[in-house]
Amino acid sequence: MARLWLGLGALGGLLSVALGAFGAHALRGRVAEDLIATWGTATTYLGMHAIALLVCGLLVLQRPGLRLVTAAAWAFLIGTLLFSGSLVILVLTGTRAWGALTPFGGLALILAWGLLAAGAWRELR
């Protein structure tokens, strides 16, 4: 399981940098400025939560069987896909309805941080 979180965390970091550069160079002048800001939010959250997945992976690597930390990693993954993914699709398609998924991603990310805190408190004694 640790390999999954470490690999996905690294992939998330890669995508965060690549998509950030794409937004800074390829999207300027092609989409509205408010959508450039939305793109920036998507890539920032992607990068931040890629690091969170790496932390979960390192914890699970050291102590396999950390149920709350593993649950946090799943919630980080789902939250990032919904939050950042919906914003990226919104910007690329111009279909604002994709923004309806974003709050669900945000809730999953809040849950993930809570699970990680609970895991640190209860499982890492």
Automatic annotation (TrEMBL):
Keyword vocabulary terms for this entry: Membrane, Transmembrane, Transmembrane helix
Residue stretches spanning the membrane: 36-61, 68-92, 98-121
Domain of life: Bacteria
Record GO cellular component, one term: plasma membrane
InterPro entries to which the protein is assigned, alphabetical: DUF423 (IPR006696)
Cellular localization per UniProt: Membrane
Membrane topology: Multi-pass membrane protein
Entry similarity comment: Belongs to the UPF0382 family.
Protein's name according to its UniProt entry: Uncharacterized small membrane protein
The species this protein was found in: Thioflavicoccus mobilis 8321
